[in-house]
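W.,

You were right to be curious about this one. When I first looked at the sequence I had no strong expectations either way, so I just let the prediction run and decided to look at it fresh. Below is the sequence, 261 residues in total, followed by the output.
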Amino acid sequence: MATDTAPPAYTTDSVLGGGLTLRQLKTGHRVGHDALLLAAFAPADRRRVVDLGAGVGSCGLAFLTRVPQAQAVLVEIAPELADLARDNAALNDLSARVEVVAGDVTRLGRPSGPEVPQAGAADLVLTNPPFNDTAQHRISPDEARARAHMADDALLEEWVRAADRCLAARGVLCLIHRPQALAAILAALDGRFGAVEILPVHPRPDRPAVRLLVRAVKGRRTPPALLPGLVLTDADGTPTAAADAVLRQGEGLVQSGLAQP
């Protein structure tokens, strides 16, 4: 007798032009451009990396693919996603350079928090924090998607504080967020980070930015700088050469004439 077969719960997808393979949940939060842009915006001279809210590991693993000397701790609160991050490290032959921690970002670097990552041990923190203001958006019924996309300014500040605890002096924080959060981002960085560089990401030349890439240095007091924006597609929808270099060829944005932190 025939029996119904449930569809697979996971898919295996290639990104960075086949340079990185990721196993991820078929439904819920899926890997997109944000993680890859964030990894590309991080300076390549960093070696001790922490990825906060790593999901299936896309951002941290993308950075390790570009920077073969680096090692990373991937922190993810959802055990299933943390397991996938561990699987993806193995799938891409990166296990020797990766440690996955299933834990709460807000407890990192505290005496009661996990032993790894150690406070002050990182020289780079990457984070694609939860966003979309819960007061302005209806929360998704999918719990994982809601967790990935809903947060308020207080949680953003908690994540920046966690990054501060994880980083050594002059360590670099890189994050991606929506443009509407600019004031909250600068407020969270104030007093902890300086030399802030902000790179707007535009879907087309004539469209407002849909994302902000932000890079800042712990302990610096240099005023912020607004960098030339990245345009993802031409007016006809064709990917720009700059976007193609990052999203398909795995190149770094900091190597495109941007000032090193």
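Here's what jumped out at me. The chain is about 25% helix and 25% strand. And, maybe more interesting for your project: Confidence is low (pLDDT under 50) at residues 133-141, 145-150, 256-261.

Coffee later to discuss?

I.
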